């Protein structure tokens, strides 16, 4: 067989695998994986270069927080996948966070932010983080006053928003605008789904077939973002740090108290209630929003409490049928999704699936950090 014929045969085989994957997806009635287009822009926060530049500076500025030590970038570091490379995220000084930090890459496409979907937009996510007790711990009036004593901010806010002095609500809008520029939509998976059959290796195409078929990943990780933004209990074990890290235990108990649970649950809970915190519905115990698969090559560790340190560990967890929660009366175990069951993947199939998952990431996104503007005393009358 000539090289040309071999090449044509290979392309036909790859196209056939892609077609069978799409057919399998259609039969299961799940949205197919798709290339990621341009992010949606809200009508009440239109983009401009000046607004994005202001938001970038604010993203790096720790003065948009409690004691001027904790910025957005503190927990969303560019060289750690725009997330934080430890099981639990950093906390406000004297604390540790209680969940894993999620990447802000491609967050512009999501309709529900945070692990339990407690923010419906980037404009609402920013203040929740900057003002959260174990995150930024900021106060509106303090943050606004700091910005008023920074002449460059006064000028930039006036240019962008037309205000005499910076307003904290406008700061969240600017940060959200900057985050909407943190887009990675030219990955090997995007290129392949757009018609470039050479963008994925044979191993990755085999992994895509497993993703859409035997492994069942498409049931929850579907659409352009590879998430249905629904909520599931996978049986992820409790955070290991709650066993031996006193400060992490303090934060966990504080969150139970602050978000409201019964006295009995406060005393006995050893696992994260997840969506239950928002709804107080028992069937939501231990459920978390399906995370997107994009950019995950750079965002380890994985799951809401950082239980797994590489993608192979994640696939092996699913292949084993998930895990077990630690909840005293069995309620959380009862909410474990019926979709989570042993998959029967061989070692070779696990390698293929991991290779495909890596294709969702593309090149790392690097941004030059801004120079933060200084304070300046106001001139006396």
Features:
381 residues, mainly alpha, Cytochrome Bc1 Complex, Chain D, domain 2, two-stranded antiparallel sheet, 16 helices, 40% helix, globular
Sheet with the most strands: spatial strand order:
1-2
Under the CATH scheme, which architecture of the largest domain would be assigned? Orthogonal Bundle
Given as residue ranges, the uncertain stretches (5+ residues, pLDDT < 50) are 1-26
Q: Helix and strand succession? A: HHHHHHHHHEHHHHEHHH
Please identify which CATH superfamily of the largest domain we are dealing with: Cytochrome c-like domain
User: Radius of gyration in whole Å, from Cα?
Assistant: 23 Å
- Overall residue-averaged pLDDT value: 90
Indicate the CATH class of the largest domain.
Answer: Mainly Alpha
| Whole-number total of structural domains | 2
Report the count of strand segments. Answer: 2
Helix percent band: 40-55%
**In percent, how much strand structure appears in the residues?**
under 5%
CATH topology tier name of the largest domain: Cytochrome Bc1 Complex, Chain D, domain 2
Explain what the structure shows:
The chain has helices at residues 3-28, 49-60, 72-75, 122-131, 140-148, 151-161, 168-179, 188-193, 202-212, 241-244, 246-259, 263-268, 276-279, 311-319, 331-334, 347-358; strands at 231-232, 288-289. 43% of the residues are buried. It is mainly α and 381 residues long. The chain starts with a helix and ends in a 23-residue tail after the last helix. The chain has a two-stranded antiparallel sheet with strand order 1-2. Residues 1-26 have low confidence and may be disordered. The protein folds into two domains: 49-179, Cytochrome c-like domain (Cytochrome Bc1 Complex, Chain D, domain 2); 202-358, Cytochrome Bc1 Complex, Chain D, domain 2.
């Amino acid at each position: 067989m000539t090289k040309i014929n071999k090449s044509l045969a290979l392309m036909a085989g790859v196209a056939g695998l892609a077609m069978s994957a799409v057919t399998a997806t259609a039969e299961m009635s799940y949205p197919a994986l798709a290339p990621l287009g341009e992010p949606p822009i809200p009508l009440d926060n239109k983009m401009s270069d000046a607004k994005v530049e202001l938001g970038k500076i604010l993203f790096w500025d720790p003065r948009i927080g409690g004691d001027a030590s904790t910025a957005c970038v503190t927990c969303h570091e560019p060289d750690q996948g725009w997330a934080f490379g430890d099981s639990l995220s950093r906390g406000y000084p004297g604390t540790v966070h209680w969940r894993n930090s999620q990447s802000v890459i491609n967050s512009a496409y999501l309709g529900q932010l945070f692990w339990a979907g407690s923010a419906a937009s980037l404009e609402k996510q920013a203040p929740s983080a900057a003002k959260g007790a174990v995150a930024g711990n900021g106060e509106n009036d303090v943050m606004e006053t700091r910005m008023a004593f920074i002449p460059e901010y006064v000028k930039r806010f006036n240019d962008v928003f037309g205000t005499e002095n910076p307003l904290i609500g406008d700061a969240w809008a600017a940060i959200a605008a900057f985050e909407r520029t943190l887009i990675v939509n030219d990955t090997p998976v995007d290129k392949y789904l757009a018609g470039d059959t050479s963008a994925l290796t044979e191993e990755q195409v085999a992994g895509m077939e497993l993703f859409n078929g035997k492994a069942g990943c498409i049931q929850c990780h579907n659409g352009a973002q590879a998430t249905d933004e629904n909520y599931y209990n996978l049986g992820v074990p409790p955070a290991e740090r709650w066993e031996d890290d006193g400060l992490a235990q303090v934060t966990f108990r504080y969150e139970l108290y602050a978000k409201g649970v019964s006295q009995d649950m406060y005393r006995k809970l050893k696992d994260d209630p997840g969506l239950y915190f928002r709804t107080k519905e028992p069937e939501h115990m231990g459920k978390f929003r399906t995370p997107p698969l994009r950019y995950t090559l750079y965002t380890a560790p994985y799951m809401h409490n950082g239980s797994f340190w590489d993608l192979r560990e994640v696939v092996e967890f699913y292949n084993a049928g998930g895990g077990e929660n630690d909840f005293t009366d069995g309620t959380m175990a009862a909410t474990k999704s019926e979709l989570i069951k042993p998959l029967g993947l061989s070692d070779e199939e696990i390698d293929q699936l991991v290779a495909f998952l890596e294709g969702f990431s593309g090149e790392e996104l690097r941004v030059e950090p801004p120079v933060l503007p200084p304070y300046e005393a106001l001139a006396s009358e």
